[in-house]
UniProtKB/TrEMBL annotation:
Basic and acidic residues composition bias: residue spans: 45-59, 171-185, 670-679
GO process annotations (BP): ribosomal large subunit biogenesis
Main localization, broad class: nucleus
Keyword Coiled coil: yes
Residues covered by region (Disordered): 31-59, 159-188, 670-724
Coiled coil: 596-623
Protein name (Swiss-Prot/TrEMBL): Nucleolar complex protein 2 homolog
Species of the source: Anisodus acutangulus
InterPro entries linked to this entry: Noc2
One matching Pfam family: Noc2
Amino acid sequence: MGKLGKKARKFAKKNLPSVLRDRRKKKALFKKRYSSKNKQSNVEDQTKLVHHSNERNTEVEAFEDLPLDTPFMENDSDDIAYSSDSDGYLSEDISYDTETDSEPGKLLEGDKCTSELVTQNIKIQEDLAVQKRKLEMLKRKDPSFSKFLERHKKDIEAMQNGEVFSDEDEMSNRGRDSVSEDNQGKNKGRVLTASAVSSWCRLIKEEHKKEEFVCVLNAYRAACHYGAESTGLRFQNADTFCSLVVSVLSEADNILRGLLGLSSSSYKKEAILELKATPQWVNVKPLIKSYLRSTLSLLDQVTDSEILAFALTRFRASLPFFAAFPYLLQRLIKTTIHLWATGGGMLSSASFSIVRDVASLFTTDCFDNCLAKAFVAYLAQSKATEIVNNNHLQFLRNSLVDLCSLDVQKSLSKATLSVRQLAKILQWGLSTKKKEALQRICSWEYANCINLWVGFIAANIRDYDLQPFFFTMVQLINGVVGLFPGPRYFPLRLNCIQWLNDLSNSTGVFIPIASYVLDVLEYKIVRGGGKPGPALSFQSVLKLPKNCLKSQTLQDECFTSAIEQLSSHFLQWSYHISFPELATVPLIRLKKFYELKTMESLRRAVKHLIEQVEKNADSVQKKRDEVAFSPNDHQSVEAFLQFEKSSLSSPFIQYYRSVLEKAALRGSRKNEKISFPRRDKSKRKREQPLKNVADGSLINGSGHKDLDTVNGTKKRVKRRGLKA
């Protein structure tokens, strides 16, 4: 660029400063304008980003904190209706004040009444919310009205706290407590002897005398509340206490039915409701209420399982009496559900018998309450990293399936909501692959929820239309299998395979699971022979620790479990007309697996399975070549080899029985000792394995002797975990 001329330099010197000055002004002005706009836009963008991130975080937190029992929580109400304080000791002069024994529970006598009250409460709350908004708007518009409210705020709070009605409440409470205080004062300091109890029991058994029965019920109440409150009545010894409780539990129901004129075989609540209008009921009602309340207190206080099982067995006959006391029925449901979930053996069985009778005997709302509480208790028992008592959990699952089968349509609606919730959590895990999502899915709470609904489908799909629910469950289980491909999750995958097998067996619908089983079978966990490890049980754990992955025990457990599941799958379709085609691809993969393996025990088991499958496929092929119908004749296809299937004498069935026997033997051996080694943070020197002691056994763990090898000598160390 050349130099400017004289005229150009003169023009620039004259005009350029003003141009630059104007440009600087305009630039500053535009900068101010744009900076304010940019700040506003940046603030808006940041708020949008924060809003979206908060939405994502709340969505993630909602999935993390979403309990699986949410569909049942609306029916799981722990609030027990108020019962009057006059349900204490009975007056032994048989002069009952029936007016003071008023029941607030009468509001709950009809389920229609409760539903109407709930709808009325909802409408009242909505109206109150509208009125509150109008009041807030009026306070903002009219400051004088707001000042008026502040001046009268103290008077409003006094009325809300009920200070005006305090005197009336005190008088009513005194009237309620008068009968129980008088009777408790009479019993204060009395010692109940064995002779008195035996005479009372003899009189009520033989003559059904009401006066003696009142005395027995008062003593029974003192026994049931023994230790929980100061009853004033003492027992001579433990035998007196036990004989009283056993006598009342054995004879009370018969005596009460005799006083009401009911037969011992009458087990309908309608009979009790019909008697409520008679004067005979007015005299016997305090006795029934005292017996029911005292027994419920006994169930809450006693910890011995045998006593509880006996009390529940005898108490079961008195269930129709609860139709007149709805608030006591809620206590009964809560107590028996707790004993069913936390007990074991006879106690759980006796508790569930009462829960099932209550659900079938009373109204639909009572069934909903029983189902909700039972499901919540079942999931509460499933919140564990390792299942200790798998048999008890299986009993809870079967019991809950039996309870759901009482009303399949209502249970199906709840099950659909539950499975929909499981599917949302699975979708969250598939889309994010976060650690929290995987931990939520690979948990016993999630797995036992799936196991419950699989059992529900298997028990009811023959009699009800559960096909949509069945296909939803299959998709859910397939999603769980695809989410966890690694060897640490083999227990979860094998559980999913077993669920699919159960669904296929109960519905008669083919579910392709052979590829899932063969993936487990062909996975190379260790190269060559691994180290021997501790005993494993895939029924008590879903995720394996890392220090078990290279053990030979894990390889053997995966192999035997896969053979069992594959044999069960082949057995189900062993008589189907398409079995040769079904077994083609699995046979190819099994033969390839047989060629690659070098361990003789694995090769022998796989070879036996291949031979049995090929033999069964050849026999089905020969029978199929002899038929004359086409594949489109579905009726003939379904009837193919049904006679041979009912005989249960085919070679493949005999083979499957041998597989089950070996599995049962292996399970009994594993139950002797199952533990996982703990990984130590500090590296230690490899210790020499312990040799068998003189008696041929070496058992480590709580409640047994531990041996330690130090410098080649065996020393006995202290016992651990022994309980007196």
